């Protein structure tokens, strides 16, 4: 049997700041990929670590009143200790101060130097200390570094340069002929647009008199290696390039995961360094966007740091992981807020998944003394339909995760979970239980639900390993998430008949956000009034907007603001609307309105509201949204 291999990396994180949500996201993404390929039966290797050289570390250490190595030890330790709390299971943690890494960097430098692609020259230019690099005039914004908003200083220096320009045409051709080498596409396009300008050679050294916190060049002891040439090489040094068995085993299947701020070093410097060092190229560079908190980029230099640990201990690691993966479309920016996290927790995890699991177990307990029943009756169309939905979820997982389409994979799994909840409502096991002749049918229904819960647990295991283990444990088939294999554990019908299942507590207790959060909240994206964050189309699509006709309207007693409406949206809905100050009941009867049809029910002044009527306000007047001419009630608005 051929064992396939998969090697995934995160960037090594720079130790001038503590871990924040940006680091957490990249690392969790890599963890999900690693777990997914293990689930498929691949042999995998997952690398993360810390980048520890350069001026900024020297500065930060000085400010902290310590030496660079102690400082790096401390921050690197924070990163290493954070990952287990997020259920991240990396195989190796590399540090650029590791002697093994230093050896490999020197080896590759010498190799490239010997081949003539590193040369000595003097350079005069504009240097940003924050970025640790020289800037071209045209890269500056109003004469300032775009990242640091500070004017760079003029500096002249003799240094070693890597002949990157030599590889420009080759790189353009390579990317052209390998369209998914850098993905999603927008980042490939971005790299290609960098490459439309002539590529400059890359300065790869610093004189020791100015910076000695770095790896000495093997061919000139007066210089140390400049950050990128050192840092990028971690991806092969961790595998003990050139002779290590890990290198031979895993390098051919390597994929990198990064945030878009380091696209250029990974999309341009790294492939050209690899080419010059005569190594095979990586398979894919996978690039994600930023988490926006409050406003602007989630950035260590601007000081908006959300500590992942705070929310993890508050809501649980799986809710946190689920939120990050479900909320962000890989490649695009997304908004982070605690409120949105709690919303996902309540709606998707407590309501949909948690409810399905707990009702399945409750019915197994009630009707079959908590033991797995056999399949006895012939399966109905409705069972076949549900199984088909599960197969679709499995197909979506298989198709989307390799492309980093996490939100799509999760949406498909949740469609299946929701279909199963509807299945329960439609079949009505409680009615079958009243009829002795339906006993066999009831067995099949409950067994179908048990099997579905089990397979769903396997599918969510890469995203929410803890929850997957909990579900499997209670279904009487305990297994460590990392030991699951889709080929066996994803098979239908493998629960052992007669095996006891245990009900246990709710998987995700609901959170009352207002109570929980108001006192001790972190800044929520929505709290900013100035600017509405952009949402992906998928989010908008989740809102079910319908045209309705108001059939009946009356004032709610003791309320000036609220009207109680009956609206026909293809079916009759009771909706409470806050339009009573501008609209009399008789004004709105017969009106066409637009209704948010899939809003969670709410109680206002004691009246249930199943939806919301849309109205526009400029602060003074309030006007109902309507259609330009009559439309059949229930018509979709999009
Ligand atoms: Zn800068």
Bound molecule kinds, no repeats: zinc ion
| CA(first)-CA(last) distance | 51 Å
Number of strands: 25
Radius of gyration based on Cα positions: 29 Å
Category by helix and strand content: alpha/beta
Mean model confidence by pLDDT: 90
Q: Which residue ranges are poorly predicted, with pLDDT under 50 across at least 5 consecutive positions?
A: 295-303, 517-531
Main sheet overview: 6 strands, parallel
**Spatial arrangement of strands, main beta sheet:** 3-2-1-12-13-7
Shape: globular
Beta-strand percentage range = 15-25%
| Relative helix content | 40-55%
Separate helix tally:
22
Give an account of the 3D structure.
This protein is an alpha/beta fold. 40% of the residues lie in helices and 19% in strands. It contains 22 helices and 25 strands. The strands form seven sheets. The protein has a six-stranded parallel β-sheet with strand order 3-2-1-12-13-7, sandwiched between helices. Strands 16, 17, 18, 19, 22 and 25 form a six-stranded antiparallel β-sheet that branches. Helix 15 (406-427) runs antiparallel to helix 17. The radius of gyration is 29 Å and the shape is globular. The relative contact order is 0.09. The model is unreliable at 295-303 and 517-531 (pLDDT under 50). Zinc ion binds at residues 128, 130-131, 145, 147-148.
């Amino acid at each position: 049997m051929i064992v396939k291999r998969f090697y995934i990396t995160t960037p090594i994180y720079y130790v001038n700041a503590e871990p924040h949500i940006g680091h957490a996201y990249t690392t969790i993404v890599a963890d999900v990929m690693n777990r997914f390929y293990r689930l498929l039966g691949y042999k995998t290797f997952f690398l993360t670590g810390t980048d520890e050289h350069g001026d900024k570390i020297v500065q930060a250490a000085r400010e902290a009143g310590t030496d660079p190595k102690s400082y790096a030890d401390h921050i690197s330790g924070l990163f290493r200790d954070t990952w287990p709390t997020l259920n991240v299971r990396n195989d190796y943690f590399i540090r650029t101060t590791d002697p093994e890494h230093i050896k490999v960097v020197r080896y590759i430098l010498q190799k490239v130097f010997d081949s003539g692609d590193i040369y000595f020259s003097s350079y005069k230019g504009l240097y940003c200390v924050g970025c640790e690099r020289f800037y071209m005039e045209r890269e500056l914004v109003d004469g300032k570094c775009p990242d640091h908003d500070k004017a760079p200083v003029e500096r002249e220096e003799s240094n070693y340069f890597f002949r990157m320009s030599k590889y420009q045409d080759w790189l353009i051709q390579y990317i052209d002929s390998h369209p998914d080498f850098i993905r999603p596409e927008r980042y490939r396009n971005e790299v290609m647009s960098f490459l439309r300008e002539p590529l400059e050679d890359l300065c790869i050294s610093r004189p020791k008199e100015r910076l000695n916190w770095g790896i000495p060049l093997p061919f000139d002891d007066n210089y140390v290696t400049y950050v990128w040439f050192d840092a990028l090489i971690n991806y092969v040094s961790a595998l003990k390039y050139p002779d290590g068995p890990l290198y031979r085993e895993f390098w051919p299947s390597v994929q990198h995961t990064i945030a878009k701020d380091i696209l250029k070093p990974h999309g341009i410097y790294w492939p050209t360094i690899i080419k010059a060092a005569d190594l095979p190229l990586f398979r894919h560079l996978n690039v994600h966007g930023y988490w926006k908190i409050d406003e602007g980029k989630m950035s260590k230099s601007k000081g908006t740091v959300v500590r992942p640990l705070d929310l993890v201990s508050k809501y649980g690691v799986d809710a946190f992981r689920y939120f990050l993966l479900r909320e962000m479309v890989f490649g695009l920016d997304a908004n982070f807020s605690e409120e949105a996290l709690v919303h996902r927790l309540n709606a998707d995890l407590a309501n949909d998944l948690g409810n399905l699991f707990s009702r399945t177990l409750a019915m197994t307990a009630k009707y079959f003394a908590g033991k797995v029943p056999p399949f006895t009756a012939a399966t109905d169309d409705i069972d076949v339909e549900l199984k088909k939905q599960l197969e679709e979820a499995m197909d979506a997982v298989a198709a989307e995760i390799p492309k980093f389409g996490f939100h799509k994979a999760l949406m498909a799994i949740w469609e299946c979970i929701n279909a199963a909840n509807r299945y329960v409502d439609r079949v009505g096991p409680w009615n079958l239980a009243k009829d002795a002749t339906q006993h066999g049918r009831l067995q099949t229904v409950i067994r179908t639900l048990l099997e579905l819960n089990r397979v769903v647990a396997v599918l969510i295991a890469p995203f929410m390993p803890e929850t997957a283990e909990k579900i499997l444990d209670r279904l009487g088939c305990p297994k460590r998430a990392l030991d699951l294999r889709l080929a066996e554990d994803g098979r239908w019908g493998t629960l052992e008949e007669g095996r006891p299942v245990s009900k246990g507590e709710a998987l995700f207790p609901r959170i009352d956000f207002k109570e929980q959060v108001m006192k001790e909240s972190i800044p929520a994206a929505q709290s900013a009034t100035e600017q509405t964050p952009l949402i992906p189309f998928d989010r908008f699509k989740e809102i079910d907007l319908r045209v309705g006709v108001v059939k009946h309207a009356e004032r709610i007693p003791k309320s000036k603001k609220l009207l109680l409406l009956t609206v026909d949206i293809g079916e009759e809905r009771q909706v409470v609307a806050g339009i009573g100050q501008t609209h009399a009941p008789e004004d709105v009867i017969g009106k066409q309105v637009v209704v948010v049809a899939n809003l969670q029910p709410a109680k206002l002044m004691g009246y249930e509201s199943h939806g919301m009527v849309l109205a526009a306000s400029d602060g003074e007047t309030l006007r109902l949204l309507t259609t330009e001419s009559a439309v059949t009630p229930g018509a979709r608005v999009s």
